[in-house]
C-alpha cells in the first residue's frame, strides 16, 4: 500500500515538472512573434496538468481495485435507498388501506347488528345515538309534512288571488280599449273642428273683403258699376252660404265632442274603480300571505335545525363505528355479513407483511453496506467532476 502511494507521488511530481517545462516552452514560442490567436501557456499547462492528474488518479484507482469497490458500493447504496423509499411508501399506502377497511368493518358490524361483549360500550352508545337520531328523523318528517301542506295552501291562495287579479286586469283592459277608442275619435273631431274653424274664419274674412269692395263700387262712378255690383253681390251670397255651412259643421262637431266627453266620463270612472279593486285585492293577498310565509319560514328553520342535528349525530356515530372497528377486528365475531370484510383485511395484512419483510431486507442491506466506501465513492465522483470542469474551462480559456 505504501509502495503504491510513493509510486503515485513520484508520477504526479514528474507530471508537474513536465507540465512546467511544457508551459515554459509554449510561453517562449508564443513570444517569438505576433500571432492572431495567441495561446495562453499557463492555462494550457494547467489544463494538461489536471488532465494528467485525473488520468493518473483514475489509473491508480482502477489498478488498485478501489474504483470498482467504491463504485459498486455507491451504486448499490443509491439503488437500495431508492428501493427503501419506494417500499416505505407502499407500506404507508397499504397501512392506510388496512385502517380504512378496519374502520369500515365497524360500520358493517353496526349495519349487521352484530354485538359482542368486547365492544359492548361503543355498541350501546351507537344504539342510544341511533334512537336519538330516529326521534329527530320522525320530528323532521312531521315538520316536512306540515311544510308541504302549508306550501300547498299558499299555492292555492296565490292561485285564487291571481285569478281575481287576472279577471280584473281583463275587465280593466277592455275599459282602457273603449276609453282609448273614444279619445282617438275625440282627437279626430278636434282636428276636424280646427279645420272647419279655419274655413269659417277664411269665409268671414273674404265676406268682409267683398262687402268693402261692394261698398266702394256702389260709391264710385265706374262705367261697369252695375256689372261689378252684380258680380260682388253674387260672390257675397256664395260666401254667406259657405259661412253658414261651416257654422253648421262646427256645431255638429262640437255636438259630437260633447257626446264623446259624456261617454268617456263613465269609462274613466269605471277604470278608476277597477284600479282601486286591483289595489285592494293585492293588499288582501299580501295580508293573507303574511302569516303563511311566516309559518313557512319557521318550519323551514326547524327542518334545517333538525337536519343539522341529524348530520351531527351521523358524524358522531361514524367516528364511534370507526373506533369500534379495531375492537371488532380483535375478536372477529362470527357473522356471514362480516366474512367478506374479514377476507379483505386478511388479504391486505398479508400484502403488508410481505412488503414489510422486503423493506426490512432492503434496510438490512443498506445498513450492512460499507459507509466509508460509499462516502469515498461520492468524494471520488465529486473530485472527478470538478477536475473535468476545470480541464474544460482551462482549455477553453487557453485558446481564446
Main beta-sheet annotation: none
Q: What's the CATH class label of the largest domain?
A: Mainly Alpha
On the 0-100 scale, what is the average pLDDT? Answer: 78
Do you know the CATH topology of the largest domain? Helix Hairpins
Count of helix runs: 7
Strand content: under 5%
> What proportion of the residues is helical, as a percent range?
over 70%
What would you say the CATH architecture of the largest domain is?
Answer: Orthogonal Bundle
Low-confidence stretches: 1-5, 14-38
Number of strands: 0
Structural class, by secondary structure, is mainly alpha
Radius of gyration from CA coordinates: 58 Å
Shape, principal axes of CA atoms: elongated
What distance lies between the first and last C-alpha atoms, to the nearest angstrom? 43 Å
Give an overview in words.
- By secondary structure, the protein is mainly alpha-helical.
- It has 2 domains: 92 residues, no CATH class; 214 residues, Helix Hairpins, CATH 1.10.287.
- Helix 3 crosses helix 7.
- The N terminus is likely disordered.
Amino acid at each position: 500500500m505504501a509502495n503504491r502511494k510513493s509510486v503515485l507521488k513520484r508520477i504526479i511530481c514528474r507530471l508537474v515538472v513536465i507540465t512546467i517545462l511544457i508551459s515554459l516552452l509554449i510561453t517562449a514560442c508564443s513570444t517569438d512573434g505576433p500571432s492572431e490567436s495567441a495561446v495562453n501557456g499557463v492555462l494550457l499547462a494547467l489544463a494538461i496538468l489536471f488532465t494528467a492528474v485525473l488520468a493518473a488518479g483514475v489509473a491508480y484507482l482502477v489498478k488498485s481495485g478501489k474504483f470498482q469497490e467504491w463504485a459498486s458500493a455507491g451504486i448499490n447504496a443509491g439503488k437500495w435507498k431508492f428501493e427503501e423509499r419506494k417500499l416505505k411508501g407502499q407500506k404507508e399506502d397499504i397501512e392506510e388501506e388496512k385502517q380504512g377497511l378496519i374502520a369500515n368493518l365497524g360500520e358493517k358490524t353496526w349495519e349487521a347488528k352484530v354485538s359482542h361483549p368486547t365492544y359492548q360500550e361503543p355498541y350501546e352508545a351507537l344504539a342510544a345515538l341511533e334512537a336519538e337520531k330516529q326521534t329527530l328523523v320522525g320530528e323532521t318528517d312531521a315538520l316536512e309534512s306540515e311544510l308541504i301542506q302549508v306550501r300547498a295552501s299558499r299555492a292555492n291562495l296565490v292561485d285564487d288571488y291571481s285569478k281575481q287579479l287576472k279577471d280584473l286586469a281583463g275587465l280593466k283592459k277592455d275599459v282602457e280599449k273603449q276609453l282609448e277608442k273614444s279619445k282617438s275619435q275625440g282627437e279626430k273631431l278636434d282636428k276636424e273642428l280646427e279645420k272647419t274653424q279655419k274655413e269659417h274664419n277664411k269665409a268671414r274674412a273674404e265676406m268682409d273683403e267683398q262687402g268693402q269692395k261692394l261698398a266702394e263700387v256702389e260709391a264710385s262712378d265706374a262705367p261697369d258699376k252695375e256689372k261689378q255690383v252684380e258680380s260682388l253681390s253674387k260672390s257675397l251670397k256664395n260666401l254667406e252660404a259657405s259661412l253658414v255651412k261651416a257654422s253648421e259643421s262646427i256645431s255638429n262637431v262640437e255636438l259630437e265632442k260633447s257626446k264623446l266627453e259624456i261617454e268617456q266620463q263613465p269609462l274613466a270612472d269605471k277604470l278608476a274603480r277597477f284600479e282601486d279593486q286591483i289595489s285592494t285585492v293585492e293588499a288582501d293577498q299580501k295580508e293573507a300571505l303574511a302569516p303563511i310565509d311566516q309559518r313557512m319560514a319557521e318550519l323551514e328553520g326547524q327542518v334545517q335545525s333538525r337536519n343539522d342535528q341529524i348530520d351531527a349525530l351521523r358524524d358522531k356515530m361514524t367516528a364511534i363505528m370507526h373506533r369500534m372497528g379495531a375492537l371488532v377486528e380483535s375478536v372477529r365475531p362470527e357473522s356471514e355479513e362480516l366474512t367478506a370484510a374479514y377476507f379483505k383485511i386478511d388479504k391486505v395484512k398479508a400484502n403488508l407483511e410481505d412488503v414489510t419483510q422486503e423493506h426490512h431486507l432492503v434496510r438490512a442491506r443498506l445498513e450492512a453496506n460499507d459507509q466509508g466506501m460509499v462516502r469515498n465513492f461520492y468524494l471520488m465522483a465529486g473530485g472527478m467532476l470538478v477536475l473535468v470542469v476545470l480541464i474544460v474551462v482551462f482549455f477553453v480559456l487557453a485558446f481564446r
